[in-house]
Write a structure and sequence with these properties.
Layout lengths: L10 E10 L12 E9 L4 E7 L15 E5 L6 E8 L11 E9 H5 L7 E2 L9 E9 L4 E10 L12 E9 L2 E7 L14 E4 H5 L6 E8 L7 E9 H6 L7 E2 L3 H6 L8 E11 L3 H6 L3 E9 L24 H13 L7 E7 L1 E2 L10 E2 L8 E3 H14 L2 E2 L6 H12 L6 E9 L6 H11 L4 E7 L6 H6 L19 E5 L10 H16 L2 H11 L4 H11 L3 H4 L13
Helix pairs in contact: 6-7, 6-11, 8-9
Length: 565
């Protein structure tokens, strides 16, 4: 191997994971396993998360459909740790989950196929618990298939009511089929119409339209013992021939077929619609010139405590000039400001009587400039916060709706795709205008913005979890649903213990930033996709707005001709 050519040996490896005989941690049901994959960062000597599977409900022998990707480098010793959790929490938070076992192994062992036959999980509580991992090299593909399926005349598997069908798709690999994705469950319906199912072309059929695909239809059972309705096989090529032609694929239950000579099928499957979408990554938008705006709103309510006393969340110790508010500002701001070319950020306060005002305000610029609330960079935010703190009176109640409305108005002025905005709200208490806040978030969800809420102190933040609507779409009091999830809530105490010293806060800032910003790339992509915006359009806008960039080349033109596989 010529010197300097080792980079050419790195490739993307797709991992398929399943487990067997996991320990049951639940009472009255079974464990709900999820796998988190971590890769050891040799620079810091710690394992860092690089991917996670879906949660499989009530199943001690899960076959995960989510594929995990690893960049494999022959010349480097890479260590992986597979961590299996029983996630009863709907947010799949490993900190609140029971551990079902771990396995630490090198990437080389996985690539060589040594885990195909299974490997015992350590710390599993059951010597029979195993994990099985298969690996295959994959190619980058930005082409997604979006399918919509219907079925007719499915067998009824339920004694009371009707079957609750869902589909699982399997890709042929050697002599076996491996699951690659599944649809939603349709309750109580023998003629179901499933919503759009999106899957990457390479994941679905390994870039081979002639590769056999097996589709299995099950009747969902809450205890995980799903009943087989029937299965069919086809190639992607044959499947696509069914678009608009109403080609029927009979679902066959082999056991039922063997028992009854008159058996024909257990229902038929049809492809109702199909389209191809380009899948752009967050990095493509950033490389094309996406500008990230940043707005901060700080809680000035009386529940924070008198800033003059050490017990206050706003207190500054002369020897340790930080508090929980400054920690949150710096953690998020230091990351976001790198994506904004002018670094001018609006900063507001709420729940206080500011400067010479005689009433409580719920959206007031901390620089006391109503015509221009912008400050320069993170240091400008910190300076404005200290200035307002020294010239204002803490009051109440805790209302979010006005600052959200202000941030939404700003975002509504920039809908071309070149700008995206992040509103950081830092608060110490429960919201007192919940219904108005929900309405403002629902309205904001159609604009290019995300909202990060950081809870400081020891208050009860249960109401915040409702706004962080990971499980179902947020609704306002009129029943209008949010277009997408734009809120991420993190209690600071989950990352940094209350009343930590300055050194501890500084060490935890990176961890906090990772936690609160984790959903931003996905939220940006969802917005762009909903508006039909792509990096090519953004790049062209950037070049028109900043013609001098033609020479400086601060961004890279996306290569749309490589959008396929």
């Amino acid at each position: 191997m010529p010197p300097g050519s080792s980079d050419n040996l790195s490739s993307r490896i797709e991992l398929t994971i399943k487990c067997s005989s996991l320990k049951n941690k639940d009472i009255g049901s079974k464990s709900d396993p999820m796998c988190i994959l971590t890769l050891k960062n040799e620079d810091i000597g710690k394992f860092e998360e690089i991917g996670r599977t879906e949660r499989v409900e009530n199943n001690l022998n899960p076959e995960f459909t989510t594929k995990l990707l690893v960049t494999y480098k022959f010349e480097t010793k890479q260590m992986l740790k597979f961590k299996i959790y029983d996630c009863d929490d709907s947010k799949n938070d490993p900190d609140k989950a029971d551990k079902l076992g771990t396995l630490t192994v090198s990437v080389a062992e996985v690539v060589q196929g040594r885990l195909r036959g299974g490997r015992p999980l350590a710390k599993s509580g059951d010597s029979n618990s195993k994990i099985y991992v298969t690996a295959r090299e994959t190619t980058d593909c930005r082409q997604n298939y979006v399918f919509s399926f219907i079925a007719l005349g499915l067998d009824n598997k339920d004694f009371l009511g009707k079957s609750d069908p869902f589909l699982v798709f399997h890709r042929k690999e050697g002599d076996d089929f491996t699951p690659v994705g599944q649809t939603e469950v349709i309750d109580n319906n023998l003629n179901p119409r499933w919503g759009a199912f999106t899957i990457n072309f390479a994941t679905f059929c390994n870039n081979d339209k002639k590769l056999p695909i097996k589709v299995v239809c099950y009747d969902f059972d809450s205890d995980g013992s799903h009943d087989l309705i029937g299965a069919c096989e086809m190639t992607t090529e044959e499947l696509l021939q069914g678009v608009g032609n109403k080609i029927e694929f009979p679902l066959i239950n082999e056991k039922k077929k063997a028992k009854k000579k008159s058996y024909k099928h257990s229902g038929v499957l049809m492809l109702e619609s199909f389209r191809i979408e380009e899948e752009w990554e967050f990095s493509h938008y950033v490389q094309s010139g996406l500008q990230m705006g940043f707005t901060v709103a700080i809680d000035f309510t009386g529940s924070n405590g008198n800033p003059a006393y050490p017990q206050s969340l706003h207190f500054f110790n002369p020897q340790q000039p930080v508090n929980q508010y400054t920690t949150a500002i710096e953690s998020v701001g230091n990351v976001v400001q790198e994506y904004d070319s002018d670094k001018m950020f609006p900063v507001y306060g709420f729940g206080g009587r500011f400067f010479t005002q005689d009433r409580t305000s719920h959206c007031f610029p901390l620089n006391n400039d109503l015509s221009n609330p912008n400050v320069m960079g993170v240091q400008g935010i910190l300076d404005a916060y200290r200035y307002a703190l020294s010239t204002s009176t803490l009051s109440g109640p805790t209302n979010f709706s006005e600052v959200i409305r202000s941030a939404t108005y700003l975002a509504s002025q920039y809908q071309s795709g070149l700008h995206y905005f992040i509103l950081l709200i830092i608060t110490d208490g429960a919201i007192t205008d919940m219904e108005q806040t929900k309405a403002e978030i629902v309205a904001a969800s159609k604009y290019p913005m995300s909202i990060i809420i950081v809870g400081v102190g020891m208050a009860d933040f249960e109401s915040m979890e409702e706004l962080d609507s990971d499980k179902k779409a947020l609704e306002d009091f009129n029943g209008t649903k949010a277009v997408r999830d734009i809120v991420q809530f993190v209690p600071l105490r989950e990352v940094i213990p209350p009343y930590s010293d300055a050194a501890a806060m500084a060490r935890s800032q990176q961890k906090l930033a990772q936690k609160v910003l984790a959903e931003i790339p996905k939220q940006v992509k969802l917005y762009m996709k909903s508006r039909g915006l792509n990096p090519v359009d953004i790049y062209n806008q950037y070049m028109q707005m900043f013609p001098q960039a033609q020479n400086a080349v601060p961004v890279e033109a996306p290569k749309s001709e490589n959008a396929g596989c």
